[in-house]
Input
Amino acid sequence: MSSIDTYGLINAKVRTMRSYFLTEAQYRQLVESKSLREFWALLSQTRYAPLVEKVNYQEPVQVEQSFLLAEIQQLNQIKKYSHKRTSDVLNRLMERYDGEKLKIILRSWFRQGKGSNEILPDRILYDFPIQAMVQAKDIHEIIFLLEGTPFQKVLYEARQNYIETRSLFPLELAIDRRIYQRLLDIKSFINRRDRRIVERLIGVEIDLKNLEWIGRFKKYYQLSSAQIADYLLPHGYRLGKEQIRQSLGGDSITKILLQIMRGMNADLPAEMEGELALKALDLFLKEVLMREARRAFGEFPFSIGSVLGYFYLMRLEMQNLRMMVQAKQYNLPPADIDGMLFY
Output
């Protein structure tokens, strides 16, 4: 099947859907709204009107779950126009939502049911027996209850690390490894041009995930730099092994950022360490992800780029919405909010 046959219809669909993303003017209105109530009223005038009508903006869990469902519904809409190969790609993208849902289930189980209201009850790709899992007597019962899902094998192989550490992080890390390896495996059935797009976009997301884990390891776990490096995900795009080694070894984050920016404009303080340094890296990598997603759209139209580009731009827009909701809850000034957004 040619690239035009594979991507022609779906490319037209995602480009039409992209035209409904929030505009700069709409972002400006939302940022400058005086309250969460006004923000929600303005959001009702955008493509998110059906979501707004069903959700109580004063219920954070309800808002978060509605945002998740909005993302999943968009992917399901695209799937209707996809051939088998692109449908498989979309399923792999959607599998991350099941992975994140499984993490929330595990956390609720670990805390003896606390936070169970945060678990999305809707089915995504797999059916999880949520109540039985939250009430499971041990990790072995949870693994048994995952029968019929790809996550059963994942947790089975990571169970001993959990038993030895009594921490969920080996289980959560195993889930992440499964999700990103499945995404990278897309390269096995696509052409060379598409492989380059996958390596760039998924590689940047791996960078962001590794950054998240580095922050968690440094904050919550007493691990050596070598141990942390062993736990991180391979195949990052900008944050390679050398940069990770330098950041764990105490090198200046500003120095590392300048090394990986490759000509991008930046106004950075001379020295950044700790949480400020990790935040700077996070913001930089999100900027790279946005640029790469837009670049994927601008390249040859009959490629995986339009699908992946839409996915990551959609995710960034949903992150912006979450950020604005939280900012309005804390009455942050518009200038502070705008600096947190990517559009």
Observations:
- The longest helix spans residues 192-220.
- The radius of gyration is 21 Å.
